[in-house]
Amino acid sequence: MAALSLALGLSDVVQAYAGGIQLDTLFIDEGFGSLDQDALDQAIAMLSELQMGGRMIGVISHVSELKEQMPVRIDVSASRHGSSVEVKGVLL
Q1: What pTM does this model have?
Q2: Does residue 92 register a pLDDT over 70?
Q3: How many CB atoms within 10 Å of residue 59?
Q4: 7-55 pLDDT, tens per residue?
Q5: Which residues of 6-30 are buried (b: 16+ CB within 10 A; e: fewer)?
Q6: φ, ψ for residue 81 (rounded to 5)?
Q7: How many Cβ atoms are within 10 Å of 32's Cβ, its own excluded?
C-alpha cells in the first residue's frame, strides 16, 4: 500500500512541478499478492476511482481478484512455444 501511495503521489508531484505536464497513464507493478483482503479491496477501489477520473492505469499482477476487477485487461500467457496475449473487455 505504501508503494502504491508513493507512485500515485509522485505522479501528482511531477504534474505540479513539470510546467503543465499531465500524467494520464500510470503503470503499477506492485506487491498486490502480499495484501490482505481489506487492503486489496482498498487498492482496487482507489485504482477504479482513478480510472473513473480519466486516468489510464496499467497494473501488472498475478492476483486473480485484482485481474477480475479490471474492466479491460491484457492477459499474457506463457507456453513452451512462446508467449501470447489476449485483450479482454472493452474500453468505454
Answers
A1: 0.63
A2: no
A3: 20
A4: 777 777 777 777 777 777 777 776 777 888 888 888 888 877 777 777 7
A5: eebeebeeeeeeeeeeeeeebebeb
A6: -100, 0
A7: 22
Q: CA torsion, points 65, 44, 48, 86, in degrees to nearest 10?
A: -30
The model's confidence at residue 82, banded by pLDDT at 50, 70 and 90, is very high
54, burial (CB in 10 Å: exposed 0-12, middle 13-18, buried 19+): exposed
How far is residue 7's CA from residue 28's CA, in Å, rounded to a whole number?
8
Residue type, 80: R
Q: How far apart are CA 70 and CA 5, in angstroms?
A: 19
Spatial separation of the C-alpha atoms in residues 49 and 23, rounded to whole Å: 15
